[in-house]
Specification:
The complex is a heterotrimer of chains A (342), B (561) and C (297). Chain A is mostly helical and 342 residues long. Chain A contains 13 helices and no strands. Chain C has one domain: MetI-like (MetI-like fold). Classes of the chains: A mainly alpha (342), B alpha+beta (561), C mainly alpha (297). Chains B and C meet through α10 and α15 of B and loops of C.
């Protein structure tokens, strides 16, 4: 276990350095003065510019500039957004939890729908239900997410009026921003309309989360199906059925648990995929998350925001990936071995 | 087994949570109005800008003016000033202020006194006097005041007593009172300014505003929303709603979606008017605004420093198509800056002929026989004078292609767009102007005068001495016929020199749910939520239930549904 | 299908032929395959066959609904947009952009990826481990995000989108080639070639490649559906094809503003993207299914 942890840690540090290196070099590729791109201070007076140049060591060679940049990042100074002139670090801290909230709910929905459907497909392997589930899942996998979002809004918000079409919560409710995750903030707040706000936030999150969850759900269907088929073919399941256990007992007592293990290890990768889909969905549903912010910054050519946003998002995705790898390996000793042969 | 139970219980609780307690939310929404705005304000002080988006958000909501326009005839009426007196030579204007005007009480400021002359003097001195300690705070640019030359006009502002002030003017000026009634001439709090000076946070006066208006600022999340609370000590009756929220939604479809899904009560610049008029619970309203949409050239950049090129392009554009395609018949073609409703409108100016052959000839004559490439900057959001600049740019692009000119369309987020235009980064642009008051000078000075090139509202950077002299003369005389003559001359200079091509005068539209009552649209391009309130919407089910229960002599709670 | 057997010869179909035989028997896969071929033909000949220009609009035919609607016009089969451009022509041109470009992208990244992957499969030791780590990092970042990053650096535009998607798909091909080559090299027939004295390149080219082409093709279809969606998404976000190119995602974004007055400008491009991706996925499913059947034999 120790060796595994050390190896994973080294991979983590290596990747983090690589990502910061990428975001640092990207700075020079953008048009304009690189120090302005780095800090976003487009209105700086000449004195302030000198101060900034000192802070980022632009007069020395590239290596020292990188070290200075690294220092600032570790201190949490990401500079100012070129468009709004507000501190990027505070903006990111506000918006990242919103994306996390949306992605987690979407992941939950994807797993809750995908995994059971996949199990059902595996149990009815080769029959009509199996083919039906597979074909529906293929359609779900092929729909462009932005089109799906628009159709969902048209159907559920406008024609049926069941769910709202944009935002995280109705603006009438004033919930103080504590963690950034709306549900926790509502519970922590002292507003007289707490439960209304809670139900309102739920109504707001359902539609975007479902839209995001569709594609990962189809992948979970596939994973669950493969895993369950494999498990159902093993000798211990055959032994159990020979023993005389009823079908239901076999499935619920033995098969599901073993099948789930195989699926869990893919959750990390799926989460990363999900966050990317969430970025596009955020734009459509005006969800105040980091994906929408990043895309708007790209449109506005706000280079400082783009750099920091990319760094934060990639780091976040990678951290999640490593974390799930770690948890899975902690739970399943078999996975700690050398993944790559030779 | 457990899994199924878990699923069913969670589904039930979900439905329970979402469906229940709608009653209280409706109570909250009865006293609040959500307005879907088309953009973020650049600042919270309208003195510093000319952008309609900023003025919509701030001027009538947060602040008051000395005098204001009221009624259909747009008469000047008292506001903070109870009455005023102008001397016969027109050089001294005295205002007598009300004694009961209170400033906002917010998280960041508690006023200890009511409004007095010091506040009025502070507000104007800040904009006009270069030596004033607050003049250069937040940039030092007061475009409206600088465009109308107010600092040259006003010699000094004298405090007679705590509630009387006198403006000493260098010469008589017929638009002075009109200019003081515009959305820009707001009154700030001198006490707040002092407090900020001591805290060394002077720029907060524009980002954390304090005024006397019917609403005060509670919270602003950049690019997302503005939350206003009612000002309980407003000098008139307090506003009828407790909370006003501006939901910033730059996408046209997004705003309409929110209206149709009932997430917004009132919506700015709605599209798809047919969809709105179809629904019985929504209504569409329009106001004939004094505005003009135009296609302007940056005369500092080649080839637009050449008058012939500008004239050529004016012959190459098919204005009628633009009118039909973009405004869908809801606008009038503009042949000059002034719309028909202005008293200085000149009937003799004829329609610009659409003649691409002539345009090509002019181009050849100017030395650009092979054509050239140019960029055209178009606004990303709807404005009252132009509902869809990007599509208009595409139509112009195809018109100009026919005479050999390649057009690249450029756009940015709205406030970035305006900033870059001010810096002169463009070659040509689509923009427009909504008048601040009925005086025609409000079209001629801010758009094309020489002083306006420095403040950034004249982004053609065209500076013509003859033109400037004429509009100055028009300001100094009070003879309406003479003024008309001067303005006619000015318009003919514009027609010859073509720093811009006027395109259309259009109405300003707004859509709202039928439960919102009260006028919002002001005639001069602003909006005012002071008189807005909400009517209770009772659904059919509850109405019949109410009737039944009323018959049994029971009392119902005031919630609905 | 009767064929006269003149010679009593046993025909050993190559792996590819085996695949094709199974593929042919699956009706769904054949359906997908024919749609796929249709799209390729459209991508090549679309610009010639399209009735109107996708860029020039007819200014007196603005916002026409599709022909089956009462207000529609048969000469504009799928209606027009706000500048009078025919939707059918735009979609046909868009095929060469979204579908055609995605096909080219896959081919380029396939070639590069397979070359690098097979070369790297021959290496071992520290270099191998380093490459593993690097690949692991790159593969854990989703393709769309990586594409957005690259486009953010290079700037918007369809050429940059193509480069971005190529760069993003290469690691997938490297990974699968490495894995496949390593797996095959453990098999006996490779050992036999080695014992014969063949050089590594010879082994690679003559022995291993024919046996992994099908797996690579399966990956290629996966990559193509991802490429179509990525190009369309980037076009939708305004980072890909710029005005006035009629790429499907960009056309959809253009129709957003007209969603309420002309909903067909949003429905039709979305359907086109869905159609293309489904066709690609059906072909991919068919190949993978055939692979499995062949393995089980």
């Amino acid at each position: 276990m120790l060796v595994f942890t050390l190896r994973r840690l080294s991979l983590f540090i290596f990747t983090m350095l690589l990502l910061t290196l990428v975001s640092f070099s990207v700075n020079f590729l953008f048009p304009g003065d690189s120090i302005i791109n780095l800090t976003g201070a487009i209105n700086a007076t000449p004195n302030q510019l000198i101060g900034l140049n000192e802070a980022y060591q632009t007069n020395r060679n590239i290596f020292w500039q990188y070290i200075a940049y690294l220092g600032h990042i570790i201190n949490g100074e990401f500079g100012l957004s070129m468009a709004s002139q507000s501190d990027i670090a505070t903006e990111v801290v506000k918006m990242l939890p919103a994306t996390i909230e949306l992605s987690l709910v979407a992941l939950l929905i994807a797993m809750l729908i995908g995994i059971p459907l996949g199990f059902i497909a595996a149990i009815k392997h080769g029959k009509f239900t199996d083919s039906l589930i597979l074909s529906v899942s293929m359609f779900g996998y092929s729909i462009p997410v932005f089109w799906l979002g628009l159709l969902a809004i048209l159907t559920f918000s406008i024609n049926l009026g069941w769910f709202p079409s944009a935002g995280q919560i109705s603006l009438l409710f004033e919930i103080k921003l504590v963690t950034g995750i709306q549900f926790i903030d509502i519970l922590l707040s002292d507003s007289p309309y707490k439960w209304q706000a809670f139900s309102d936030a739920t109504a707001h999150i359902i539609l975007p989360a479902c839209v995001i969850a569709l594609a990962p759900a189809t992948i979970f269907i596939r994973l669950a199906r493969t895993s369950m088929i494999e498990v159902l073919g093993t000798s211990y399941i055959r032994a159990a059925s020979a023993k005389g256990l009823s079908f239901r007992q076999i499935i619920f007592r033995h098969a599901i648990r073993n099948a789930l293990i195989q699926i869990i290890r893919h959750v990390g990768l799926q989460f990363a995929n999900l966050v990317t889909i969430a970025m596009v969905t955020e734009v459509i549903f005006s969800w105040p998350g980091i994906g929408r912010w990043l895309i708007e910054s790209i449109y506005q050519r706000d280079y400082t925001a783009i750099e920091s946003g990319l760094l934060v998002l990639s780091c976040f995705i990678f951290i999640v990936h490593i974390l799930t790898d770690f948890i899975y390996a902690a739970l399943n000793p078999l996975a700690r071995g050398n993944k790559y042969g030779a | 087994m457990n899994y199924l139970k878990f699923i069913t219980t969670s589904l039930f609780s979900l439905v329970f949570l979402t469906a229940c307690n709608q009653k209280d939310k409706l109570l909250l929404s009865e006293h609040s109005v959500i307005y879907c705005a088309e953009g973020s304000p650049e600042t919270f002080n309208p003195q510093l800008v000319t952008s309609g988006t900023t003025i919509d958000a701030t001027s009538n909501q947060l602040y008051d003016r000395l005098i204001t326009y009221k009624g259909i005839e747009n008469k000047l009426s008292p506001a903070i000033a109870e009455s005023w007196h102008v001397t016969s030579d027109g050089t001294k204007v005295t205002f007598y202020l009300r004694k009961d005007v209170a400033f906002h009480h917010t998280d960041y400021f508690t006023p200890t006194r009511l409004l007095n002359a010091d506040d009025v003097i502070f507000s104007f001195e800040r904009a006009l006097n270069l030596e004033h300690p607050y003049h250069f705070v937040s940039g030092g640019s007061y475009p409206f005041f600088q465009n109308v030359g107010l600092s040259d006009l006003v010699d000094k502002i004298e405090k007679i007593n705590d509630h009387t002030i006198r403006f000493h003017l260098s010469h008589a000026d017929n638009s002075f009172l009109a200019n003081l009634a515009t959305d820009f001439s707001i009154i700030l709090s001198a006490e707040y300014a002092e407090q900020l000076s001591k805290q060394n946070a002077k720029s907060d006066i524009d980002t954390h505003p304090i005024g006397t208006g019917p609403f005060k600022l509670k919270e602003y999340r950049v690019g997302s929303f503005i939350r206003f609370y009612q000002h309980e000590q407003y000098w008139q009756d307090p506003a009828k709603i407790d909370q006003l929220v501006f939901d910033i939604t730059p996408s046209n479809t997004g705003r309409l979606t929110k209206l149709l899904a009932k997430e917004c009560d009132v919506v700015a610049y709605p599209i798809a008017h047919g969809k709105i008029t179809q629904r019985k619970d929504l209504s569409l309203e329009a106001v004939t605004a004094l505005n003009v949409g135009y296609f302007g050239f940056n005369v500092n950049k080649a080839p637009f420093d050449n008058k012939l090129v500008r004239q050529a392009i004016s012959y190459a554009i098919n204005k009628q198509t633009l009118l039909d395609a973009i405004y869908q018949g809801k606008a009038e073609m503009a042949n000059s800056l002034l719309p028909k409703t202005s008293w200085a409108f000149d009937k003799t100016i004829k329609n610009q002929k659409f003649d691409p052959f002539f345009a090509k000839e002019l181009l050849n004559f100017a030395g650009y026989a092979e054509g050239f490439t140019m960029d055209l900057w178009a606004m990303p959001i709807q404005r009252p004078y132009n509902p869809n600049a990007i599509t208009m740019a595409k139509l112009i692009q195809s018109d100009l292609k026919k005479i050999g000119i390649q057009v690249n369309i450029v756009s940015y987020e709205w406030s970035t767009f305006l900033q870059r235009l001010k810096r002169g980064e463009h070659q040509s642009f689509l923009l427009g102007w909504s008048a601040d008051h009925p005086d025609p000078d409000n079209f001629f000075s801010p758009i094309l005068s020489c002083s306006a090139t420095k403040t950034g509202s004249n982004t053609t950077f065209w500076c013509n001495e003859e033109y400037d002299t004429i509009i100055q003369k028009a300001l100094r005389t009070s003879d309406i016929d003479k003024r008309k003559e001067y303005y006619a001359q000015a318009m003919s200079i514009i027609r010859q020199e073509v720093p811009l091509i006027p395109l259309a005068h259009s109405k300003r539209y707004q859509a709202r749910g039928n439960n919102v009552i009260g006028d919002i649209l002001a005639p001069f391009g602003g909006i005012n939520f002071y008189s807005v309130s909400k009517r209770e919407l009772i659904s059919k089910k509850v109405a019949t239930k109410k009737n039944k229960l009323d018959g049994k002599n029971n009392t119902l709670s005031t919630g609905v549904n | 299908m009767a064929r006269d057997k003149i010679y009593l010869e046993e025909i050993f179909p190559s792996p590819f032929m085996q695949l094709w035989q199974v593929f042919r028997k699956t009706p769904v896969a054949m359906l997908g395959g024919s749609c796929f071929v249709f799209l390729i033909v459209l991508a090549i000949f679309g610009p010639i066959l399209a009735p109107y220009s996708p860029i020039e609009g007819q200014l007196d035919m603005l916002l026409l609904p599709p022909a089956w609607n009462n207000d529609g016009n048969v000469s504009y089969l799928l209606g027009t947009d706000e500048l009078g451009r025919d939707m059918l022509s735009r979609l046909m041109y868009g095929t060469s952009l979204t579908f055609g470009l995605s096909f080219i992208v896959v081919i380029i990244s396939l070639i590069i990826g397979v070359v690098i992957g097979s070369l790297s499969a021959l290496t071992t030791g520290l270099k191998s481990s380093f490459l593993n780590h690097f690949l692991d990092v790159v593969l854990s970042i989703p393709s769309l995000l990586l594409a957005i990053i690259i486009v953010a650096i290079l700037g918007p535009g369809i050429a940059n989108t193509v480069w971005a998607v190529v760069l993003v798909l290469i690691p997938q091909f490297i990974h699968i080639t490495r894995y496949a080559v390593k797996e095959e090299s453990r098999k006996d027939y490779v050992l036999a070639s080695k014992l014969d004295g063949a050089s590594p390149f010879r082994i690679l080219y003559y022995s291993i490649f024919p046996n992994i082409t099908d797996r690579i093709m399966g990956q290629a279809t996966l990559a193509q559906s991802a490429a179509i969606l990525d190009i369309a998404t980037l076009g939708f976000l305004g980072l890909g094809a710029q005005i006035p190119l009629p790429e499907w995602g960009a056309t959809l974004a253009n129709g957003l503003d007209l969603f309420y007055i002309a909903p067909w400008t949003v429905y039709l491009p979305g359907l086109a993207i869905l159609f293309a991706v489904v066709a690609t996925n059906l072909v991919g499913e068919g190949i993978r299914h055939a692979l499995k059947v062949r393995k089980d034999r």
